[in-house]
């Protein structure tokens, strides 16, 4: 069972060919584009949702920050759809791989910070020292703020990975517990099954929330730096 | 436009703007052959997976329960031969798929209606703009028509005004004519009455009384008083008349003097 527990997290390879590319590209098939004014229900709902999310997220930025809209919207759609698809049985979730999350987090964070340093150098450097600190504490505080700045991309990536991986693991474990308890005592198995159902609902919520949190934090870093 | 579009497409292979030129709108059929329209609803399915035709296909041979027995047998064979093994994943399958089915059954129709409502709102917005524009133009047409009708009736007003002015002019002219006539008649009447009086009584009365100036008290009878009054009056009038006559007479020599 130990072997089985972690096999769902290995990158799928079929006959030595990386299938993971196809899996990462697959969600793009689920967002069709349509040039019509009045399209089918699927496209209409997606357009409405995208409009809602983009309005809610990009309204706090100035015009310079709003140039990142396409990037942030594709980010939230990608993370949301891959997380939700990963909840289907026997599927692989790309966002459980730390490598991929780091690959998403580090360039975005670095882009925001470097934009800030290039365009508003003084203001960006001023972020290292919060207002109203007593003078003896300044050197300490600068070091701490630097560390907190450099930890941001790590935190972004690890947060996403840990949440999704933990969710999948829990589902697996509780499913295993239910299976094991089935032969021992059916009532306990039913209770465990109820727990599993609740966990599934939570996982659906977590999938979408994590996408939102990731994108929100990137947009916050952007807001600080534009 | 449909005839022009293929020529536009064949214009060049990769010149800039050709992609936009090929993206043509409202040219009728997007395909070159008459494509049959898509059906509104898809094929009917049972359990969301098995098409209804399968059940109809098996019905003549096995009746209603045939496909169900086949399905049960297949599933039991998969399970018993462990072609499909029960793992912890099975329970997550049950919970996930069960959750999804429950959500779709409960909220599917309302989400579909919401999507339809969104589309309807878009169309209604555009329709409203169109209707407002049509109404505006219709109102303009109606106002124009009413104003044209008013213009047709304007000549009555002008006729009345013209008649009024003509009448006023006529009245003024006649009034002046009458005044002139009256003045002239006045003067001529005076001269005539003077002449008449001179001719009839004036000289007799004048001789009778010796031609003295009146104004002093007289001893006379009523009749004579009258005649004396008439005489005095006429004398005064004669004086006046003579004065006016002399005035008239002197005016003439003055005129002639001026002329000469």
From TrEMBL, chain A:
Q: Which organism is it from?
A: Bos taurus
Keyword set, alphabetical order: ATP synthesis, CF(0), Hydrogen ion transport, Ion transport, Membrane, Mitochondrion, Mitochondrion inner membrane, Transmembrane, Transmembrane helix, Transport
Organism domain of life: Eukaryota
Assembly notes: Component of the ATP synthase complex composed at least of ATP5F1A/subunit alpha, ATP5F1B/subunit beta, ATP5MC1/subunit c (homooctomer), MT-ATP6/subunit a, MT-ATP8/subunit 8, ATP5ME/subunit e, ATP5MF/subunit f, ATP5MG/subunit g, ATP5MK/subunit k, ATP5MJ/subunit j, ATP5F1C/subunit gamma, ATP5F1D/subunit delta, ATP5F1E/subunit epsilon, ATP5PF/subunit F6, ATP5PB/subunit b, ATP5PD/subunit d, ATP5PO/subunit OSCP.
Indicate yes or no for the key word Membrane: yes
| PANTHER family hit by this protein | ATP SYNTHASE SUBUNIT A
- Pfam name, any one: ATP-synt_A
* Catalytic activity line of the entry: H(+)(in) = H(+)(out)
Q: Which family does it belong to?
A: Belongs to the ATPase A chain family.
Biological process according to GO: proton motive force-driven ATP synthesis
Q: Name one GO cellular component term.
A: proton-transporting ATP synthase complex
Task: Indicate the transmembrane segments per the record.
Answer: 12-31, 67-88, 100-117, 137-158, 170-198, 204-222
Gene Ontology MF annotations: proton transmembrane transporter activity
Q: Where in the cell is it found?
A: Mitochondrion inner membrane
What is the designated name of this protein? ATP synthase subunit a
Chain segments annotated as coiled-coil in the UniProt record: none
Membrane topology per record: Multi-pass membrane protein
TrEMBL record, chain B:
Classification via InterPro entries: ATP_synth_Bsub_B/MI25, ATP_synth_F0_suB
- UniProt feature coiled coil, ranges: none
Question: Has keyword Transport?
Answer: yes
This protein's major location comes to mitochondrion
| Keyword line | CF(0), Hydrogen ion transport, Ion transport, Membrane, Mitochondrion, Mitochondrion inner membrane, Transport
| A GO CC annotation given for this chain | mitochondrial inner membrane
**Keyword Transport included in the entry's annotation:** yes
Q: Write out the GO MF terms.
A: proton transmembrane transporter activity
Say which family it is in. Belongs to the eukaryotic ATPase B chain family.
Known PANTHER family for this protein?
ATP SYNTHASE F(0) COMPLEX SUBUNIT B1, MITOCHONDRIAL, MITOCHONDRIAL ATP SYNTHASE B CHAIN
Q: Specify the protein name.
A: ATP synthase subunit b
Organism in which the protein naturally occurs:
Bos taurus (Bovine)
What gene is this protein translated from?
Answer: LOC788745
């Amino acid at each position: 069972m130990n072997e089985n527990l972690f096999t769902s997290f290995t990158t799928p390879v079929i006959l030595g060919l990386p299938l993971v590319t196809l899996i990462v590209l697959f969600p793009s098939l689920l967002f069709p584009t349509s040039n019509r004014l009045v399209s089918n229900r699927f496209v209409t709902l997606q357009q409405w949702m995208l409009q809602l999310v983009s309005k809610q997220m990009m309204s706090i930025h100035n015009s310079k920050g709003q140039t990142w809209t396409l990037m942030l919207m594709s980010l939230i759609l990608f993370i949301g759809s891959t997380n939700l698809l990963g909840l289907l049985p026997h599927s692989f979730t790309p966002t459980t791989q730390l490598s991929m999350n780091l690959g998403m987090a580090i360039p975005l964070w670095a882009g925001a910070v470097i934009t800030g340093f290039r365009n508003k150098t003084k203001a960006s450097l001023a972020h290292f020292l919060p207002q109203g600190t007593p003078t003896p504490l300044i050197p300490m505080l600068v070091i701490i703020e630097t560390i907190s700045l450099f930890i941001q991309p790590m935190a972004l990536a690890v947060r996403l990975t840990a949440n999704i991986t933990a969710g999948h693991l829990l589902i697996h474990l509780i499913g295993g517990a239910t299976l094991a308890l089935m032969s021992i005592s059916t009532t306990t198995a039913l209770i465990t099954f109820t727990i599993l159902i609740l966990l599934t609902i939570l996982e659906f919520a977590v999938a979408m929330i994590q996408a939102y949190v990731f994108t929100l934090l990137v947009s916050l870093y952007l807001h600080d730096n534009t | 436009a449909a005839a022009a579009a293929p020529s536009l497409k064949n214009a060049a292979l990769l010149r800039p703007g050709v992609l936009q030129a090929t993206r043509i709108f409202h040219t009728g059929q997007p395909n070159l052959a008459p494509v049959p329209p898509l059906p509104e609803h898809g094929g009917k399915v049972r359990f969301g997976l098995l098409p209804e035709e399968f059940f109809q296909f098996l019905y003549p041979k096995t009746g209603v329960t045939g496909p169900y027995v086949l399905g049960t047998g297949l599933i039991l064979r998969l399970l018993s031969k462990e072609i499909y093994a029960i793992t912890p994943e099975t329970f997550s399958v049950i919970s996930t798929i069960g959750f999804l089915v429950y959500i779709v059954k409960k909220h599917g129709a309302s989400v579909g209606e919401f999507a339809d409502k969104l589309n309807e709102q878009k169309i209604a917005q555009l329709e409203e703009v169109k209707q407002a524009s049509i109404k505006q133009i219709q109102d303009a047409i109606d106002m124009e028509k009413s104003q044209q009708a008013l213009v047709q009736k304007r000549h009555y007003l002008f006729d009345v005004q013209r008649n009024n002015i003509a009448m006023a002019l006529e009245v003024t002219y006649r009034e002046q004519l009458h005044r002139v006539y009256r003045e002239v008649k006045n003067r001529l009447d005076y001269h005539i009455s003077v002449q008449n009086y001179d001719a009839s009584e004036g000289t007799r009365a004048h001789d009778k009384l010796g031609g003295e100036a009146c104004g002093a008290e007289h001893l006379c009878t009523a009749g004579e008083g009258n005649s004396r009054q008439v005489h005095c009056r006429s004398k005064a009038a004669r004086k006046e008349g003579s004065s006016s006559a002399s005035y008239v007479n002197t005016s003439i020599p003055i005129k002639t003097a001026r002329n000469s």
